[in-house]
């Protein structure tokens, strides 16, 4: 079986058993995350910036103010490393050395493209909003022409990517299993709530169900 | 008041009101996070890798297998951008445009130094373990000479750094406050548990309190 997303750059070097290259696995991790880290090079030095994102098919989108330093740099067509990391648990082994974490991460490489087409830009903005809370786009005021112009949207094709996943209990050195040390996994999850309604609400609008029953 | 950690590179450019440069604020965010993102440049292109870390005083430490690509690259004394991001909530505005997130993030710039001194290396390894679960170091088997040799520890001084923080309700356009759209904040927290004891436990060791009552 070939892995078109697997390249020399995306091949997982450390713990190669943890590497996965199928699109579905990568898309699932991207869809569950809320924040990505965008790495790029300015004057030979690395910059990493956390930001929101969305996915439509085989592209991820990031956005920001047209005036932002990150977007101005990325618009010049430079290389980007885009990562999303989901932390699933603390792996507590019998030795300090074998402590680890359960996680799912994605790394994408590529050159970001400026989305100039108005329709694609609006679709991407919808994807950002829907990525955060499904159904939210239909509930809120859509971007007006001024807001659209002030927003820069960049697309990064998912063509060179890998996922790295660790699951399961600690793996200790054989001779350590006899030690009287508790070992196991402490799962971590992201919990939402309680909802805080904006004190500036002027009318009595109920909290929508997609917010009230939010789960990630 | 001067901000020694604030430099041209760490000055927050977008939404400068959110920028903070005092050491205490930065240290608090670093101590709460579990995973950092390390950005560096290889052959002119950016690489961002999620990894564990620890802090002692005004240094952060990362580690990995001596054979790892990341650590080999960093050992050559190249520039690093180190970030930690804590997501505190979804900020749901009346317009799509004003949606945001509440977060606390730290960005550090610098050159990582290889920790050669055996005592500092052991102290850093203790910091990694204690960073994940306080009190764990005393409960587990310490690194032996082989494990110490196989582990590479890098130090990054906290000398050029900034924090960026957003809190509070959405800030909508003045004319949108009259819209019949629910707006507010959905707080997000990291929850731990239920604890999963390793099925390979050979003796009946109780779950330690620092794991059972874990809070981040």
Question: According to CATH, what is the class of chain A?
Answer: Mainly Beta
Termini Cα gap of chain A:
32 Å
Query: What is the average of the pLDDT values of chain A?
Result: 93
> Strand fraction band of chain A?
35-45%
H/E element order of chain A: EHEEEEHEEEHHHEEEEH
| Multimerization status | homodimer
Shape of chain A: globular
Please describe what this structure looks like.
Chains A, B: Pfam families: Pyridox_ox_2. The structure is a homodimer of 216-residue chains. Chain A is an alpha+beta fold. Chain A has a single domain, classed as Pnp Oxidase, Chain A. The first copy, chain A, contains six helices and twelve strands. In chain A, strands 1, 2, 3, 6, 7, 10 and 11 form a seven-stranded antiparallel beta sheet that branches. In chain A, strand 2 and strand 3 form a beta hairpin. The longest helix of chain A is centred in the middle third of the chain and has 15 residues. The mean pLDDT of chain A is 93. The interface between A and B is large, with 96 and 96 residues.
How does the SSE layout of this entry go?
Two copies of one chain form a homodimer.
Chain A: E1 19-20, H1 23-32, E2 36-42, E3 45-51, E4 54-56, E5 59-65, H2 69-74, E6 79-92, E7 100-111, E8 113-114, H3 118-132, H4 136-139, H5 145-150, E9 151-157, E10 161-166, E11 184-192, E12 196-197, H6 209-212
Antiparallel strand pairs in A: 1-10, 2-3, 2-6, 4-5, 5-9, 6-7, 6-11, 7-10, 8-9
